[in-house]
Amino acid sequence: MIFPEQVTIRDVTLRDGLQNESVFVETEQKIEKVKEIIAAGFKRIEVTSFVHPKWVPTMQDADELGQRLPIILGVEYEALVPNKRGLDRFLQSNFHSAVLFLSASTAHNQANVNKSTEESLEEVTELIAITNKEGRKTVGAISTAFVCPFSGEVPYEEVEKVAEALVNSGVNELGLGDTIGKATPRQIYEYSSRILEKFPDVPLSLHLHDTYGYGLANVMAGIQAGVRLFDVAQAGLGGCPYAPGSPGNIQASKVVQLLEKQNINTGLDIDQILKLDIEFPKLLGSSKVLTKTV
Amino acid sequence: MIFPEQVTIRDVTLRDGLQNESVFVETEQKIEKVKEIIAAGFKRIEVTSFVHPKWVPTMQDADELGQRLPIILGVEYEALVPNKRGLDRFLQSNFHSAVLFLSASTAHNQANVNKSTEESLEEVTELIAITNKEGRKTVGAISTAFVCPFSGEVPYEEVEKVAEALVNSGVNELGLGDTIGKATPRQIYEYSSRILEKFPDVPLSLHLHDTYGYGLANVMAGIQAGVRLFDVAQAGLGGCPYAPGSPGNIQASKVVQLLEKQNINTGLDIDQILKLDIEFPKLLGSSKVLTKTV
Question: Could you count the other beta carbons within 10 Å of the beta carbon of residue A192?
Answer without folding.
Answer: 25
